[in-house]
Amino acid sequence: MSVKVRFAPSPTGKLHVGNVRTALVNWLFAKGQGGSFVLRIDDTDLARSTQEYEDGIEADLTWLGLTWDERYNQSKRFDRYGEAAARLKADGRLYPCYETADELDRRRKVQLSRGQPPIYDRAALSLTDAEKAAFEAEGRRPHWRFKLEGKRVAWEDLARGHAEVDTASMSDPVLIREDGLFLYTLPSVVDDIDMAITHIIRGEDHVTNTGAQIEIFEALGAGAPGFAHTPLLVGADGAALSKRLGSLSISDMRDQGYEPIAITSHLGKIGTSDNLEVAPSVEDLGAGFAFSKMGRSPARYDTADLDRLNAQAVHAIGYAEAKPRLAALSVDLGETFWNTVKGNLNKFGDVVDMAKIVTGPVTPVIEDAAFAAAALDLLPDAIDADAWSAWTSAVKDKTGAKGKGLFMPLRLALTGQAHGPDMAAMIPLIGRERLVQRLKGEAA
Ligand code: GLU
């Protein structure tokens, strides 16, 4: 049986590193197993879902290289959810309840004050037809709860090992709201059955849901698929990232200049036994993915790691790939230039500053005018690949300066900066005319 997984985001916000990690783990697992990946837009909540967010989800996944084999909108499948609901009602597993939110709240408070767990008491199960009719006559509409069996539901979790949920400790979940809206729980199971999903992979915040959903699979006459619940992300300080996720959207990260492969390598490897290194491609990442490498402890999301991986990814970009991107920034100064500067970039866009060192204007930093004048006198006529070493040894002989005392004043005069790419490779790119002007202290 070939693997088929799904990513089911709600188009009620932007994708952030938390839900993209779920998408990625699904995708990596599927691709590693030669399986397929379904994108299922969880837009049953028509009031909160927007086309703009839906488009954003597609754009972000595409940018990250997480392509899908099938795609669905849950909002187009209400008929199927209605059929499933009818079956559950006929079997007595879905029952109408008429309590208002206030009434439920009051009951919960009483339970808590008595030291009891705040579980729904199933009062609605004993309503007579006359009582139901009276509520309806009052204008109340029912919400519908799924009657749990109240048992230990167990499964072998790919990420957590043996897992169990006691559904006796849970309230019967509401599957349909009084306004007729299907809450996520039932549509998700109906779709997982209809689409023949083999594995449900999602964050560990869904473990309790899984207990109820396995009962719903069974109630609908289907076997439950495999499950993996991945550990949640925590920040560098160890605190849960959930509150900060809103500020970690993928579209913002794209705007900040992060490479997609840096993001996928980072999210795919944190919390695993793999070294934190950038992968050659997201397909390679899939080939190396295994749940057995994933620990149960939270995955530490540290921006410093992402920055390191991003620099690694930029350093690995060959000229052919860089060329159109350089052209788009109007800084395609050729292959030698790219190969000379790329090792000094943290983000691709930093190349603009590197190009400025070549094309100017650079404001030279000269502390010792006599030293700069002596260096200017000795500047070779031909500025080729060997010029730097011949020139600096001549300057050393003449002035007695050596080491940092020799190289730093030259770098500062010629680039205006204390750090930067290899000077031997830079000076032929800068060219003799600008070198002369800069050694004279002129902005050029
Ligand atoms: N839309 C749900 C969520 O984002 C999907 C959960 C699931 O994968 O079953 O939480």
From TrEMBL:
Its subcellular locations are:
Cytoplasm
User: Which residues make up the binding site for ATP?
Assistant: 243
* 'HIGH' region (motif): residue ranges: 9-19
User: Which branch of life, at top level?
Assistant: Bacteria
Q: Which reaction does it catalyse?
A: tRNA(Glu) + L-glutamate + ATP = L-glutamyl-tRNA(Glu) + AMP + diphosphate
Q: Where is this motif: 'KMSKS' region?
A: 240-244
Query: Where do the Glutamyl/glutaminyl-tRNA synthetase class Ib catalytic domain residues begin and end?
Result: 3-274
Quaternary structure note: Monomer.
Its family remark reads: Belongs to the class-I aminoacyl-tRNA synthetase family. Glutamate--tRNA ligase type 1 subfamily.
- Describe its function: Catalyzes the attachment of glutamate to tRNA(Glu) in a two-step reaction: glutamate is first activated by ATP to form Glu-AMP and then transferred to the acceptor end of tRNA(Glu).
Concerning PANTHER family, the annotation shows: GLUTAMATE--TRNA LIGASE, GLUTAMATE--TRNA LIGASE, MITOCHONDRIAL-RELATED
**What name has this protein been given in UniProt?**
Glutamate--tRNA ligase
Organism (species) = Brevundimonas guildfordensis
| Encoding gene (name) | gltX
